[in-house]
Amino acid sequence: MQTVEIIPIVFVGILGFIAIWLLVCRLISSASGWHILGQLYPDHDPPAEPLWETQSGRMRGARYKGCLTLHTSVRGLHLRVHPALFIPWSHITLEPATGPHKNDIGPDQTLMTFASATDIPLRINQTLGQRIAQAKTGT
């Protein structure tokens, strides 16, 4: 085979991989509820610098390992994956997670629920939950 014949095959392969990757990301976003949260809580003014990067969490069984970026402000919590979210403090409830759960984000976990989407909780490790609670109360 000549090099000229291989180039289109490689190009189509790369485009195919990208298309499949985007489809998988979209399916995870839809299944986890992140897409719904993005519609309810769009972040129109994301902060320039993250406060906590490479954080992990679980939402409806989807695992966001090391890809959550968070920033707090006096108004609320900014969460970034895609799409970026802004949740006002008045819409956030934090409580210790109970019941069976996977230990991949830590043995002690916090359950974060959102007022406009109570059926889409986010499980995070307890340390991050405590940091968010302190930012929420201003302590």
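[next item in queue]
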Amino acid sequence: MDSTKAGLADTAASPAEDDARRPMSEARLARDAEAVGGGLPETEVMEPGTSSIPEAELDRITQDIIAALKTVYDPEIPVDIYELGLIYRVDIEDDRAIRVDMTLTAPGCPVAGEMPGWVENAVGTVEGVGQVSVNMVFDPPWDPSRMSDEARVALDMF
């Protein structure tokens, strides 16, 4: 499959890779993006030129998807789902279809049936994206270690 993988996190990460599974602050994102040659840290390394999407456009779409994800909140938690670490992976395909793997803080979350739609709608507003699909995953289960420092500060969990 010829696609560009712009993974936010890898669901199969080992405990030693825990830091890489958590959402990133904008500064960390920029540093890590530079380290991998642009875009989000990739869970699958793609050779340069394997995507039909120009690198600058891919970077813009990636940043805009993150911004869109940051507009989605669990109504019971005053932190967006990206900083909470609920987004495990985002794939941007060559046809600009977007696949999002996400989880919930708990499988019994009262908005479990609605949140994937909120994510789909938010990401769907990004200019230049095609079809958006959201996959709910529960392996590995979410835990507070997935939260960014920004989320920890907002929730007074330091």
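[queue empty]
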